[in-house]
Amino acid sequence: MLRLDGMETGYGAVKVLRGLSLTVESGEIHCLLGRNGAGKTTTMKAITGLLPLWAGRIEMDGTDIGTLPAHQRARHGVGYIPQGRRLFTELTVAQNLEIGLMTRGSGREVRERALDLFPRLRERMHQRAQTLSGGEQQMLATARALCIEPKALLLDEPTEGLQPSMIEVIRSAIVRLRDQGVAILLVEQRIDAVLSVADRVTFIEAGHGRETRAAADLSAHHEVIDRYLGV
Asked: With contact defined as beta carbons under 8 Å apart, do 153 and 79 qualify?
């Protein structure tokens, strides 16, 4: 379980997150929804250690990881797929995956399980990442994160810019990971995609976690979505 308690951080002197608290249970897809600038990506960066924690606590399965450097948080099982994928574009598919395996000393059987989710990557193992399609790059970013054997997986806009067939591949992979017990924190702008896969949704506004709802309830209470996402 991933637990955030009173998390505060920001950039320079600008505070972005203001006492944000939420939990992501093992085997749950928990979506973070909010307008642009609400603090969604900042939340991801703070969890992974790319931003320092100013106040509050971050726990992974009861262990406080909020003071650890980013690479040690990955070793505790926190996987991150950032917006824009951030692949090593000059390296091959195989080399990108190898970097993921090195993080926690994972064996080749872990790589094989990741490739089972995205068999197309098996045909691209010696191809440089920059030559892949957008959908294939997202597959590779996800597979690389899976090579650290994550207990919690953070995904920031994983379907952005993808064609419908690729969106379905990514959606299916996320659901399979949830069913395998991974705690998944998802940032996604497509409301239809969120409601089709999420278990719970937390709305974030100006760095505050405003309320958490079961995703199944939101289809019948669209006014809640309009309240936090409407123009």
From this structure: yes
Q: Where are the alpha helices (DSSP H) in the chain?
A: 40-48, 70-75, 93-104, 108-117, 134-146, 164-179, 191-197, 215-218, 222-229
Q: What CATH number has the domain spanning 2-86+150-229?
A: 3.40.50.300
Please choose, from the candidates 223, 205, 168, 176, the residue with its C-alpha nearest in 3D space to the C-alpha of residue 33.
205
In the numeric block, which tokens belong to residue 153? 């997986």
Rounded CA-CA distance 81/177 in Å is 14
Looking at residue 188, the DSSP 8-state letter turns out to be -
* Cα(182)–Cα(178) distance, integer angstroms: 5
Strand 200-205 and strand 28-33: the pairing is parallel
Q: Is 187 left (phi over 0), alpha (psi -120 to 50) or beta?
A: beta
State CA 180 to chain mean position distance. Answer: 16
Query: Band of the pLDDT at 185, cuts 50, 70, 90?
Result: very high
Q: Report the alpha-carbon distance of residue 129 to residue 3 in Å, rounded.
A: 33
What count of Cα atoms within 13 Å lies in the side-chain half-sphere of residue 23?
Answer: 6
Strand, helix or coil for residue 74: helix
- Every domain of the chain and the residues it spans: 2-86+150-229
Query: pLDDT for 107-160, tens place per residue?
Result: 888 999 999 999 999 999 999 999 999 889 999 999 999 998 999 999 998 888
Cβ-contact 60, 78 below 8 angstroms: yes
